[in-house]
Design goal:
alpha+beta; two-stranded antiparallel ribbon
Length: about 80
């Protein structure tokens, strides 16, 4: 199931084959993220895109670190100096 063909329909619509939708866990109405990379269109579920972004960030931020806590601490220090 690595390759399939489909036709571009009215208003630029495409139909994803049922096997692809099932493999990705997609259902009608799910939000998708489209990325144009070189000459290819990548389609991901919103959840998959979020997991991908989290994995990228996790390469630079150690496990257990909460950036929101660090931001709040920085803001409190700045506010104390005002």
């Amino acid at each position: 199931m690595s390759e399939s063909t489909t036709r571009l329909g009215a208003n630029g619509r495409i139909v994803l084959p049922a096997a692809y939708r099932k493999a990705l866990g997609l259902a009608q109405g799910d939000e998708l993220v489209l990325t144009l990379e070189d000459d290819a269109l990548r389609i991901m579920s919103l959840n998959a895109a979020i997991r991908r972004a989290q994995a990228i960030v996790r390469q630079y931020i150690p496990e257990g670190t909460r950036l929101s806590d660090e931001l709040l601490a920085d803001r409190r220090v700045e506010a104390a100096h005002e």
